[in-house]
Design brief:
The protein is α/β, with parallel strands linked by helices and 332 residues long. The protein contains 11 helices and 11 strands. The strands form 3 sheets. A 7-stranded parallel sheet has the order 3-4-5-8-9-10-11, covered by helices on one side. Strands 1-2 form a two-stranded antiparallel sheet.
Length: 332
């Protein structure tokens, strides 16, 4: 596996990481059992993936425990990334989740993640969503204290605006910004990516395969399980689904010409956007995991990149990437 560097301190990671969320959370309850999830993560390590991405609210809590079990005895092979900031502590009593960036919560969330993961430090600690009610300087200040204590090595932000990134980076160097980025979500190109590059911050695209849509996995809405939350996603509904399916058909044609899978083509396009990008596709399938890893070896020539741009220009996706409720949590 080729490697890339994130951030001003030069954190070295595999060119493609593994998003672990789907092994325990979201999409459908029809997920692999714990043993299969552990097996998939360990297979990823065998294939050369070093960056594992999780979060405390995936489950909640279950995904961190799964990742912790999978890396037991192999900690030195892993760059472990997790997140805090979506406060799920009161959900058991039926309360709505909330965004929480208060310094005391930062500290308690980190301690809880360390326990669940079974480690003494977190390599890359993200604020999952920016808390509009707490100055980012206060939140990052608490995160920086975790670095000084040796509990965290590097800091990150998820779905942060360019202005927030600048303010955070002035408090403590930010190693990586994580946001949705793919052939059908190119919003970061407007301000966030240029800001990261100006400041030397790495960029970690999540949902690099459009929540599985760009992989050609879905032909009708009925291909999604009845409890799959993507059924409520604007891009998976009605006319939007049909229009986005037409885009996937074109991607499949280009992939066939190059003798790669649609997933590999979409990931190779992302990798070609800059050496500072490290996508983290998730999967519950060993076969798709191996396909995704293979994308790191797919080189795209200038004419191939132009052909992709022609069929998937900025704004090509039909529908918003989140519901209004989801977009309300994004720092813009």
């Amino acid at each position: 596996m080729k490697t890339r560097r994130l951030g001003p301190q030069g954190l070295e990671v595999s060119a493609i990481g593994l998003g672990c969320m789907g092994l325990s959370f979201a999409y459908s309850t029809n997920r692999p059992g714990e043993a299969d999830g552990i097996g998939l993560i360990r297979r990823a390590l065998d294939l050369g993936i070093t960056l594992l991405d999780t979060a405390d609210m995936y489950g909640p809590e279950a995904n961190e425990r799964l990742v912790g079990a999978a890396i037991a005895g192999r900690r030195d092979q892993v760059v472990l990334a997790t997140k805090f900031g979506i406060d799920f502590t009161d959900q058991r009593e039926g309360a709505q989740r909330r965004i929480n960036g208060r310094p005391e919560y930062v500290r308690s969330a980190c301690e809880a993640s360390l326990r669940r993961l079974g480690v003494d430090h977190i390599d890359l600690y993200y604020q999952h969503r920016v808390d509009a009610s707490v100055p980012i300087e206060d939140t990052v200040g608490a995160m920086a204290e975790l670095v000084r204590q040796g509990k965290v090595r590097h800091l990150g932000l998820s779905e942060a605006s360019a202005a927030t990134i600048r303010r955070a980076h002035a408090v403590h160097p930010i190693t990586a910004v994580q946001s949705e980025y793919s052939l059908w979500t190119r919003d970061p190109e407007d301000e966030v990516l240029p800001t990261c590059r100006e400041l030397g911050i790495g960029f970690v695209p999540y949902s690099p395969l459009g929540r599985g849509f760009l992989a050609g996995r879905f032909r009708t809405i009925d291909d999604l399980a009845p409890d799959d939350w993507r059924r409520s996603s604007p891009r998976f509904q009605g006319e939007n689904f049909a229009r986005n399916l037409a885009l996937v058909d074109k991607i499949e044609d280009l992939a066939a010409e190059k003798d790669v899978t649609p997933s590999q083509l979409a990931l190779a396009w992302l990798l070609a956007q800059g050496e500072d990008l490290v996508p983290i596709p998730g999967t519950t399938s060993l076969e798709r995991l191996e396909q995704n890893v293979g994308a790191a070896d797919v080189a795209l020539a200038a004419d191939e990149l132009a052909a992709i741009e022609a069929i998937a220009p900025r704004g090509v996706a039909a529908g918003a990437r989140y519901t209004e409720a989801g977009l309300s949590e994004v720092n813009r």
